[in-house]
Predict the structure.
Amino acid sequence: MTAVAGVDVGGGGIRVRIERDGTRRYGEEAAPVPRVNGRVDLDRLAARIIAVVERATAEPEHPLTAMAVGLTGLPGLVDDPERLWRALRAPLGLDTLVVAGDLVTTHVGALGFRPGAVVAAGTGVIALGTDLAGVWNQSDGWGHLLGDHGGGAWVGAQGLHAALRAHDGRVGGSAALLERMTARFGDPFDLVALMYEPGVAAHQLASFAPAVGDAARAGDPVARQIWAEAGRQLAHTAVAAAKGLDPVFSWGGRLFEASDLLMAEFQDAVRALAPGARFVPPHGTSADGALALARAAVAGEIRPRHPYLYVFSGPAVL
């Protein structure tokens, strides 16, 4: 009995796809990625992955043949990917583990194994342009303080900036966003205290993005401009990742659920920057891409590409 699992670990939580004999099961946990000293805490993350998998499957006694994990923060915030292998192998009965950046699993989920550029936008933003062979271009993915332009934390931050301008009576404020900020966070001083707690800012900023979307759909011009600019920022990130590839573009991540607010600007800006651009709607999510990688690992079709993709099988790293 062959069982494979795909796991997407993003800024908003863990999503699991388990496939056994043609039957799929799903699991999810909504919580920020655990961190220690700014890095992903792989031990705590492994425990959470195991818990989600066990809740998702009706037959926890049967081992998983292979698992692929698409992990936010890889590359950059993961010191030792093999640590996940050591933590997950015995509890889940794994023969093989693929650990990849969520930019890789989003790419595979969106385009299958087709070359092109895919921008992933959730809490943060990262794009990968690759043919899964010789071309591997990363764009953005630098975190909410240094980058992630156009992502959920960026949209939320821009919305809060406009709300606080309205609170102060400064130019560029939005009364609609101020009302929503107060409803979500309370007094501005409470908001400041929350945002400066260690390790929570990106998640809390992104939590305000839906309110910016509500205001935009209600006709608030400041909110609408924030989303339009998000689309343009995502376009710049995607085009930068497409260097050396045919101009095939796709997208992934929960921010694109607001496609009515940003997709037109995104595609128009991509076309302006990359004449001849072709758009392929995503075939699946990052979790679907992780599941596809796990299947490919069972077939022996996956090769490592550090620091974006690692394959563990047996006692040593491949």
